Amino acid sequence: MHLAALYNPLRLLPPFQQLKNAAIGGRIVSFNAREDQERSFQSFITSGSRYLHHTSHTSIGDLHWEKQIRSSAQIRRQNGLTVLVTGAAGFVGTHVSLALKKRGDGVVGIDNFNDYYDPSLKKSRRSMLESYHIFIVKGDINDQKLLAKLFEIVPFTHVMHLAAQAGVRYAMENPNSYVHSNIAGLVTLLEQCKSADRQPAIVWASSSSVYGLNEKVPFSESDQTDQPASLYAATKKAGEEITHTYNHIYGLSITGLRFFTVYGPWGRPDMAYFSFTKNILQGKPITVYRGKDRVDLARDFTYIDDIVKGCVASLDTAGKSTGSGGKKRGPAPYRIYNLGNTSPVTVPTLVSILEKNLKKKAKKNMVEMPGNGDVPFTHANISLAQRELGYKPSTDLSTGLRKFVKWYLTYYGYNQGKGNSVNL
Ligand SMILES: O=C(O)[C@H]1O[C@H](OP(=O)(O)OP(=O)(O)OC[C@H]2O[C@@H](n3ccc(=O)[nH]c3=O)[C@H](O)[C@@H]2O)[C@H](O)[C@@H](O)[C@H]1O
Q: Comparing 36-45, 164-173, 240-249, which segment has the lowest mean pLDDT?
């Protein structure tokens, strides 16, 4: 089935339909405001995911739980991989898990379902993955015992590490969450990987933000990355150094991917393209930041399907870790790649593409970029990834945003019913 078909939560209609009838007796409910409609549709999805979530009666460590993990980890193609995906209920984690599962790899997810943004979206992603027999363990990567148990049940060949505290500006509000996930969590995970009898190869999400105040464009992997502009960037940069240490001492195979502002269906509500869409539809103002001398900010926005291809290619080309049980047996690869789109677009242009797709004008407040971690522009040089991974982004921002808006309208129920009422 084409991936686009998955973007429609109504694919899951039969169980939701049953739930609907059981929960609210199939009443037709009308809402006056679209916001209420969004909330209700979300709770509908949330209840649906509870309904679908087979683990509600199991607990960590019991037999049924183990069985679900084993079954999710089963490989269904020759020379398939067995991948632990951290942050599997996150935006990129969901898409990568699905791509791996669909080609026959074994996939087990882990996610702490934190509430940095609306957890009901994470639960909906989980429901979608469950319909593809992908199991997500609810837990934190800081839980060393849980990680040890997972590795005891499944001899993972690869770890796709995507769990992180994301968001550039939120780091000023909650700095500790970045240290908890991006530093402490990373070290706990690496400790587990290094001690495994057969060490897995690790591919993980670094960030374009490590380029910080770098002014040399386009950004290349060989450029200096010692001027981070946010704590988020600093923790990602620290992650690159920490993974290097584990590669050096223990022989872990490491690939760090510097993602450039990833967007698309099932995306993150905290990101500009997502929150702008929400506000434009609700007739609320949006704040558009501008650089010094009224220069527009720009980002090398990268579509999720391109990022997924880069992640999968990284897993496929990752050399083996050499150590076992905490002992290095020889040198292992340490790689870093930019995964961007190579064509930066300004934020006002992003807004006008959204306006066109939503058929609605935005109420724009233009304000000077506050000194809260933002950088004026990003622009990826992707020749290394092109050469070594065969990475070739193929979706421009207009095409990608059109797909995102289509998903958004369906997911939040804008396509259902007429006017301001929705059939539940
Ligand atoms: O590549 C990354 O490594 C990072 O990408 C993403 O960060 P950013 O590129 O900052 O994306 P995003 O917040 O969507 O802001 C986009 C633009 O809109 C501007 N922006 C933002 C908000 C707002 O209200 N107004 C505004 O103008 C803003 O000034 C900026 O110019 C991920 O969130 C981050 O987790 C990390 O992965």
A: 36-45
Number of domains in the chain: 1
pLDDT band at 60; cut points 50, 70, 90: confident
299 lines ligand 1 (CB under 6 A): yes
Distance from the alpha carbon of residue 272 to the mean position of ligand 1, in angstroms: 6
Q: Looking at the domain assignment, is residue 232 inside a domain?
A: yes
> pTM of the full predicted structure?
0.88
- Rounded distance between C-alpha atoms, residue 314 and residue 77, angstroms: 18
Residue 376 alpha carbon, nearest atom of ligand 1? 31
Residue nearest to atom 33 of ligand 1 (CA): 167
Residue-level pLDDT at 58: 64
Cα 288 to middle of ligand 1, angstroms: 11
> Is residue 292 within 8 Å of residue 375, measured between CB atoms?
no
Domain assignment present for residue 326? The answer is: yes
The boundaries of the domain holding residue 203 are 9-263+304-344+379-391
Find residue 109's DSSP bridge partners. 85, 136
Atom index in ligand 1 nearest the CA of residue 270 equals 13
Long-range contacts: 25-30, Cβ < 8 Å, 24+?
27/424, 28/421, 28/423, 28/424, 29/421, 29/422, 29/423, 29/424, 30/420, 30/421, 30/422
- Distance, CA 81 to ligand 1 centroid (Å)? 33
User: Could you give the CA distance from residue 75 to residue 66 in angstroms, rounded to a whole number?
Assistant: 16
Using the atom order of ligand 1, give the atom closest to the CA of residue 298. 31
Q: What is the CATH number of the domain that holds 33?
A: 3.40.50.720
What does the pLDDT read at residue 51?
Answer: 31
Active site residues: 232
pLDDT band at residue 415 under the 50/70/90 scheme: confident
* CB of 347 sitting under 6 A from ligand 1: yes
What is the ipTM, given to two decimal places? 0.99
Q: pLDDT tens-digit profile of 141-184?
A: 999 999 999 999 999 999 999 999 999 999 999 999 999 999 99
Which tokens sit at 94? 């969901």
